[in-house]
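pls read this protein:
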Amino acid sequence: MKIQIISPGVYTYGSMVLGGILRDRGHSVDISKDLRRDGDVIILSLFSTLQLLDPSIREFVSKAESPVYCGGPVGICPEMVLGELDVDAVAMGEGESIIAMLVENGPEGIPGVAYRKDGKIIRSEPSGVDVIDHAMPLFPSDLPAQSVRGANVYIETHRGCLGGCTFCQVPRFFGRNIRSRSLENIVAEVRELKRMGVKRVAVSGGTASLFGYRNSLNKDAFISMLRELSVILGKRNLSVPDMRVDLVDDEILEAIRECTIGWLFFGFESGSDRMLKLMRKGVTVRDNMRAVELARSHGVKVGGSFIVGYPGESREDFEQTLDFMEEAMLDDVFVSIAEPIPGTPLARVALDTPSEDNPLFCEHSGAFRALKISEAEARCFEMMLHGESCKPVPRAISEALYSTYLNEARSQGEDIRKVYGLLNKYSEFV
């Protein structure tokens, strides 16, 4: 059977894993970032809620003559997917165990699939995947040209998360039980990536140091993985970008310094203990600062992500975050407006918060009022500018950089208001 896998805009790791499984079943499989109607079956891998509103994707699906099956993180709310896209079925969870059955036999009777029948949506609960070692993924030939936050590809080393952050879909999609791949399975994959010309690889599973977790951190497993991959790729081509501040220590940070590019990103999210509690981060501002100081003591550079415009965030909370950034002097900063992803507790908080109390829908009346942006957009813009001035080597704010950050804040606000529209439309399912 000829199968077309489409991962719009970027090759997602999950789409490549599914491609490898189907290839090894004897199917002729092609994976593309472009919308192509070239297959007996089309698999659409979507990673963002906003892709459900993409006009080109909607038109592509509506005109497809072959069956179209949709999967990825959007599958956590299949009613929304089926309501917005005319696909034949939605994979609701991890797809490895069902993809062959779905492609070869259709959706009926398969666990973890939702589809329409006689005007109704039929859905069956997903069954988990215990072992996440898998066949060699189907790596597209142009993968070495891809860049996602500086890496050609992010590879998965484990699934699940111990955290309960309200804005994160990972523990809802993969669960809170940590399942790790074998080191042999990972090493074989990275050797193949190196052979085909991929240079920069990022290892991730949400929180990199949870690899090998068994009731507590298995530091030996994590450090062994970094050392083996560093030998294959060279330390300048290996990164472990995403970490929790409460899941690093001296040994882990020393391994990151020795075996990788020497950077990590912490999800600080806020400099307000009140907001961290609302977000269920499970850490405090003091924990965040301690992690920065510990990383710096090992010569590891620290980037940080922050969330603004979270329902309930006050101006005081926001200013406390600016103060934290000034004290931490981070090497890089990423700022985003709170996005209520379907299936997360934040989605329900967003629906229950009146518009007049939500920074995303309140017009900003402060220093940037002439820009005609929302309070959330203004905070996003201000924090991006502030982050540049708080770096160890401050960056001058040029007119071009000012415009870039303003456009980014406006774009985020516009996009997330569209997500709110979908949440309201499918409020009984999110």
Notes: The mean pLDDT is 95.
